[in-house]
């Protein structure tokens, strides 16, 4: 029966493991992300606290700061600022991107800001605030290039795009253009710097962030193509939360704080777009 | 290298979470698996049919899909049931949210999955015990239950240790799938770090090495355990 006693010992060890597991279950992710929740401003009992869902692998909108372990980014600064002017505190809940809409539908979170493009499909499931960010495709050239001023000047030029993106599709429509498809975003700009191509067509936020990271020899020119807008999502029927967010965005737009936050993360002034109704697009 | 050192605390936290959910999954899996494995050997038609259904479903579908069903599917089901009760029976709204916490969804999906594999391990282990053992025990006047408990299971347990160790290792690697629902285990920590630093190669390579260290250690532990249990054996002559 010796082996059996050993087996009992093994079972005890495994059970202890299990208990340790259950003990940690209640903390769920708080410990796992260290600073997974953070509050804006000072807590004050009359202020409501809204839980905000986001998926933190989308720099510069939301990502985890390596040094502090806190979540940071354009979206996070914006929602905290909205909370400050509209009178609510913010608690961040990080989750998988696919889970965000579900979490809103089940009323598990109060709102979500995570670089979510406003589209008709999503509008059926949740309500959106006014658009707070315009994304889309832009042309980037060397800073000393004054001949290319936008998409219209790209005919017959050499262009670098990222493989398999909407930018690649768009660039191939340009008459006479020689399109080079490369794998990674940094490669595109390297090619541009080395003079291999005349221009890069890529997502606006990604390009802007790249320039912001200290690549001042590149600039964005012209208008945004294939524009899409990011909105803050709230559960259907939560009109009070939606109203607060929209009023907050309006205030930030008027007092210049929006532009400030924009400049901090993208290194330039917002391109003729401010929160509100999308401008009429000339396609 | 500096990046890896900087991200090490996060990776260690992730590894701890990975070990935790694996231990929980396999432990609960052993409990489910024992019942399902015995159920499959049951002479009752219905019991063995149900056990077979359970095992076939969880072994025959991808774990990723099972995770999705639990985490995304169940809240919808709960929601619809609740709406149905409210509209047709005038019940008040009982649940403020039908959302399932990530850890709960992770535990449920992985342990049910593990249970199906462990059930097969146990079934094979029990069936591998020589018929003569059962006959001998029965002729000594033991009941069927006693035979199972004192004769068959102790011998079977020894035989299932190595495949159980393999199951633990397989589960440890499979928990990386939980990153898709935002459970912050080792792989998810890798995603978070890689997104902030734009250095996927170094980050995921470090993640892989940590997985390797864990699986290697566990397989050595299982080998050791197997050897220790074998020393009590005299039937090898």
UniProtKB/TrEMBL annotation, chain A:
CDD domains in UniProt: PBP2_Arg_Lys_His (cd13624)
UniProt entry keywords in alphabetical sequence: Signal
Keyword flag Cell inner membrane: no
Primary location group: other
Superkingdom classification of source: Bacteria
Coiled coil: none
TM region(s), chain numbering: none
InterPro entries reported for this sequence: Iontro_rcpt_C, SBP_3_CS, Solute-binding_3/MltF_N
GO CC annotation terms, alphabetical: cell envelope; membrane
Molecular function, one GO term: ligand-gated monoatomic ion channel activity
PROSITE patterns (UniProt xref): PROKAR_LIPOPROTEIN (PS51257), SBP_BACTERIAL_3 (PS01039)
Domain Ionotropic glutamate receptor C-terminal span(s) in chain numbering: 47-268
Subcellular location: Cell envelope
Domain Solute-binding protein family 3/N-terminal: 49-269
SMART domains: PBPb, PBPe
Family per record: Belongs to the bacterial solute-binding protein 3 family.
Protein name: Glutamine-binding periplasmic protein
From TrEMBL, chain B:
GO biological process entries: amino acid transport
Occurrences of domain ABC transmembrane type-1 (ranges): 15-222
Protein topology in the membrane: Multi-pass membrane protein
Matching PANTHER family: GLUTAMINE TRANSPORT SYSTEM PERMEASE PROTEIN GLNP (PTHR30614:SF20), MEMBRANE COMPONENT OF AMINO ACID ABC TRANSPORTER (PTHR30614)
Name of this chain's protein: Inner membrane amino-acid ABC transporter permease protein YecS
One term under GO cellular component: ATP-binding cassette (ABC) transporter complex
Transmembrane segments: 12-37, 49-74, 201-222
Subcellular location, principal: membrane
Domain of life (superkingdom): Bacteria
Subcellular location: Cell membrane
Keyword set, alphabetical order: Amino-acid transport, Cell membrane, Membrane, Transmembrane, Transmembrane helix, Transport
Similarity comment: Belongs to the binding-protein-dependent transport system permease family. HisMQ subfamily.
